[in-house]
Specification:
With about 260 residues, the chain is mainly alpha-helical. The radius of gyration is 19 Å and the shape is globular.
Length: about 260
Amino acid sequence: MLFYALSRASFNRNLQYRASHLLHNVASALFGFIYLSIWTGIGETKDLGIYGLSGLVSYVALNQCLLWVTSFTSNGLGIPQLVRTGAIATELARPVHLFYQLMCREWGQIAYQAMYKSLPMYIVYLFAVPLRLPALPAAAASAAAVVCAAYLSICVHYLIGAAALWTTESSWFQWLNYAFSTLLSGFLIPIEWLPGWLGWISRWSFYPSLSYIPSRIYLGYDGIAAIYPSLIWSVVLTFACLAVTGFMRRRVEVQGG
């Protein structure tokens, strides 16, 4: 019941900004078309392996749609703001675990962004690219991979937000994560095309779970087994978030308030 209440409140709060978010959709779709144009130009003269031009175009377009669900999570899940105002002490004292509370709220925002940002962009690309349609088993497996990706993003941003209790400026963690995500997640280029050492780092990180794995499953290049690394990382990062919350409870350094 609490999960539903917090998620619904977050979803309804975002409904007030649907008009302004339309501009986000337009800008994001334009960026996607730029990436697609670049790869179309490359594909006319280069071999794109198993993807082919059609497959890679669908891969890039799909990743652009997934950004709003798997990457554009609230900065630090709002923890830096709580630290600045001093409200973090109250939030940590609540009977509801801080991680669970913020996670529930973020799922509401993710649901909103999936419905009002990712889905409209997907429909545009479906006709304009055109984006491939998956078989039913691949669609179900890909949806599960997207849910795992969204949860991993929540965990990572929670850990980034928690850093605000020990540093006066945690936003650089946010930008560092965004840079690594763009490079290592397979967002713009499949990770098997990365240089050897960089590809090795990518494969042993959680970043491919954000873009590469859901897109590969959607396009039928991988099966449901490809989701296993995402599940393992979900467990690891969950324990990390719970452990960090324990440290936060034992020592709270509030700036301002």
